[in-house]
Amino acid sequence: MSTGRTGGSPRAKTAKAAPRAQAPAPVAPRTLAEDLRGRDDDALGALLRARPDLVHPVPADLTQLATRSSTRASVIRALERLDRFTLQVAEALAVAADPCEPAELRTLLGAAQEPEVEAVLGPALATLRDAALLWGEPERLRLIRTARDVLAPSGGQPGPTGLGPVLSEAGAGISPGRLQEILADAGLPSTHDQVSALASLSALFADRARAEALLAQAPEGARAALNKLVWGPPFGATPPRAVRAADARTPVEWLQARGFLLPAGRDAVVLPREVALFLRDGLAHRQLEPTAPTVATSRTIGPDQADRAAAAQAFTAVRTVEEALDLWSNEPPTVLRAGGLGVRDLRRAAQALDLPEPTTAFWYELAYGAGLLAPDGEADERWAPTPAYDEWLRQDVAERWLLLARTWLAATRLAALVGSRDAKDKVLPALGGGLDRALAPEIRRDVLSLLASLPPGGTGEPASLTARVRWERPLRGGELRDRLVGWTLDEAEQLGLTGRGALARYAVPLLDGDETSAQARLAPLLPEPLDQVILQPDLTAIAPGPLRTPLAQTLGVAADVESKGGATVYRFTPDSVRRALDAGRSAAELHAFLAEHSSTPVPQPLSYLIDDVARRHGRLRVGAASAYLRCDDDALLDELLADRRAAQLRLRRLAPTVLAAQAEPTAVLTALRAMGYAPAAESADGDVLISRPDARRTPPRTPPAPVPDGPPPVTRALLSAAVKAIRAGDRAATVPHRAETPGGPLPRTPAAETLATLQTAVLTGDPVWIGYVNAEGAASQRVIEPVRVEGGFVTAFDQFHEEMRTFSLHRITGVAELAADEA
Fold it and tell me: Taking Cα atoms as reference points, which of 551, 494, 496 lies closest to residue 525?
């Protein structure tokens, strides 16, 4: 196998005999790409992990990675991930000289006045360097140009520090003659050109003693005028005047004559950056925040007490979702034409659940996000439970709660926005569009993590929680971020993640993704569902605690809920018993059900009620003619014909046991039931139609996916492959380019040797020469950097085409290592 040049020359031997030269001193990087090239794989991995947008797609080499990491959109996204102090360090670097010496940076940050700065400055600089926002030697710090433009914009726009443009920019439009007048009035010697004039003026304000001496001569009111602009904004609404010192009549004119204020258009003046830094004692920020605000504990309760309170609320959350979806199993509301739920339907559901409308919207949104609720897709589209809801009901309470908690943590839909207005002034409906906010999951986890950092049983003070989240994410969310903190606290309490404001201990594992531990810790705290009720002679049933789901659902059909609380009271009425009979229950089944689940003998009045309703149930049959009534008792039909309340049905006799009605079957059933009868619907075959309350289900539906906030996090496998590919592409990019030579001699090696060499190159990362014959029979030589060899193909970076390509192994004629001077 060829290995390039072989043998040695006299020159080479002479070089070997010569004494070894000292290793050259490391060369300072001149560009961000060179800086990245000097970092190890762990540092590159940290960069890609901190800025996942750089991996999609994987850059071809380090030059492309540097270019992509300097784009404005990517830089803004990276700045949004910085905490308050790290951002202030970046802002200080943006207004400092480029490159910036550490001493200058410490002056801008007021390290002498803030002892805490020194301790946290190193980690902040490391964070900026890891994110490729900062590069260069430790003694010559360079903030990337795009970040400087964002944090200290040019064109007269003040940045976050409130500093205006530098003198060289602010004075660019001043005539050379006027600049010489300003120099003379400031006591400076004249210069030969505009650039040197502005440099001389800049040196004056950089010399604190000379600047103080000059300002000491100012008339009363001059310093007060400067103080209005010193911390920003640096623009004053005063028409500029080209006035000489001898002609100045006001403090502002005195300042303009000596360059403290310069023109900024026709109607304003500006305080140059050098003057502002002199007045600020060299500080970039009025208030530095080197450490995160402490989260205050408003009160502390016992951890066990907090866990029990949270678990009770978790149980209530599961039951509330169950009750809400059972309600729409019977009477599903329609889907609005534009999507979502109508205001009247939400109000009706809130009344039925005895909950405020915002809380009702929260539970339905949670069920929708969990995949338990969806539109049914019919022509008359309605909201109804999905088949996943029936599977959810069969799970134990802890597992059911886990689905709700998991959904809430990841959801980007905000129920708290229901009823507010969008940018087009349209009301946002529940279950509709426009409710997604990508920031929500991040803030929820931040708030819960802060609560977890408190002593067990400690409740966080909301204002301090908001201040802490604001410090950790100063550029993200704004007012929405602050409101999300309050919404998170309220919703976590409703869901049972917190109890009386303290984070439950079973909720802590959820923050680390350990759902098994969370479920195991919650289960013993939940109340054991009961399988018995207390039946009373007044036709009521008392449930002294939570009931098992099948019992609660059956009772909900056969009786009406009269009151809730520590115990639930159900009342049996003729209508409720008829509802159970309509749902397919027979009188015998109802008697057996009550006897099985009653801790006391079934009261006689309740037995009589069931028998009485059952005796009359179904004697009348209503079908479709447009509608007809059928009854074996012709006397009952005579009674109906004579009843004035039935006049609206326009009944007439067709046969001794059949009446025809000029109304729809549903209207006939409703009217007869209102008159005190117990009719049953009948099919075309004469069978009684059973309408079960849980019959309304949608086809299988996929829950709505959260709206991502940028690209997903980089997985470990992708991170390793991306770093390897970037390194391979960068090494291949440094190999001298050689054109394809279709007619030249190709490397020739046996297939086994070719495969072994390519596999070795994958492990070592070395580039190799290959001979390749394409599908058209054209032969060429290429320099490639193999990344993967599998399935009869080689994935490699082709240095000639400067892109990743896939080569068929059987088309490679041979492989040769590059000579040392070529690699």
Answer: 496
Which DSSP letter does residue 514 get?
A: -
Cα 745 to Cα 775, 783, 820: the distances in Å are 18, 15, 21
Any residues with CB less than 8 A from the CB of 257 and at least 6 apart, and which? Answer: 181, 182, 185, 243, 244, 245, 247, 248
The answer to whether 353 and 675 are in contact (CB under 8 A) is: no
**Any idea which fold 722-817 has?**
SH3 type barrels. (2.30.30)
Instruction: Note if the pTM is more than 0.90.
Output: no
Q: Are strands 658-661 and 652-655 parallel, antiparallel or unpaired?
A: antiparallel
Other Cβ atoms closer than 10 A to 1: 13
Residue 628's beta-bridge partner residues?
A: 623, 660
Nearest-angstrom CA–CA distance, 343 and 789: 60
pLDDT at 689: 57
**Domain boundary assignment for the chain:** 32-151, 167-279, 297-525, 534-600, 621-681, 722-817
Structure tokens at 667: 């209207």
Under 8 Å between Cβ of 61 and 728: no
Strands 658-661 and 680-681 come out as unpaired
CB 493 within 8 A of CB 309: no
Count of all residues that appear for the chain in the document:
823
Question: How many other CB atoms sit within 10 Å of the CB of residue 313?
Answer: 22
- Asked whether the beta carbons of 204 and 214 are under 8 A apart, the reply is yes
Task: Name the token pair of 562.
Answer: 């009269």
Q: Are 317 and 495 in contact (CB under 8 A)?
A: yes
DSSP for 218-266?
SPTTHHHHHHHHHTS--EE--------GGG--SHHHHHHHTTSSEE-SS
Pair type for strands 142-143 and 502-503: unpaired
CA–CA distance from 479 to each of 78, 87, 483, 804 (Å)? 20, 19, 6, 45
With beta carbons less than 8 A apart as the criterion, state whether 372 and 363 touch.
no
Task: Report the candidate in 457, 464, 508, 498 with the shortest Cα–Cα distance to residue 300.
Answer: 457
CA angle 14, 20, 25 (to 5 degrees): 135
Burial annotation 477-499 (CB, 10 A radius, 16+ → b, else e): beeebbbbbebbbebbbbbbbbb
Dihedral sign for Cα atoms in the order 424, 429, 435, 440? positive
**734 CB-near residues (< 8 Å, 6+ apart):** none
- Residue 324: CA atoms inside 13 Å, Cβ hemisphere, count? 27
Backbone φ and ψ for 137, nearest 5 degrees, come out as -70, 155
For 27-74, the pLDDT digits (tens) are 788 899 999 999 999 999 999 999 999 988 888 889 889 999 999 999
- Between CA 69 and CA 49 the distance in angstroms is 13
Compute how many other C-beta atoms are within 10 angstroms of the C-beta atom of residue 76: 13
Q: Which two tokens stand for residue 371?
A: 């995949």
Is the per-residue pLDDT at 4 higher than 60? no
CA distance 821 to 63: 22
Spatial separation of the C-alpha atoms in residues 163 and 156, rounded to whole Å: 10
CB 773 within 8 A of CB 784: no
Q: What is the torsion angle, in degrees rounded to the nearest 10, for the CA atoms of residue 606, residue 608, residue 612 and residue 614?
A: 60
C-alpha distances in Å from residue 78, one per residue of 25, 490, 533, 802: 33, 30, 60, 28
- Please say if the pLDDT value at position 144 is more than 90: yes
DSSP letter assigned to residue 204: H
- Tell me the residue type at 777: G
- Quick one: which of 498, 599, 511 has its CA closest to 547? 599
Q: What does DSSP say about strands 568-571 and 812-817: parallel, antiparallel, or unpaired?
A: unpaired
Comparing 47-61, 170-184, 505-519, 807-821, the range with the smallest average pLDDT is 807-821
pLDDT at res. 54: 92
Cα–Cα distance measured from residue 414 to residue 487, given in angstroms and rounded to the nearest whole number: 9
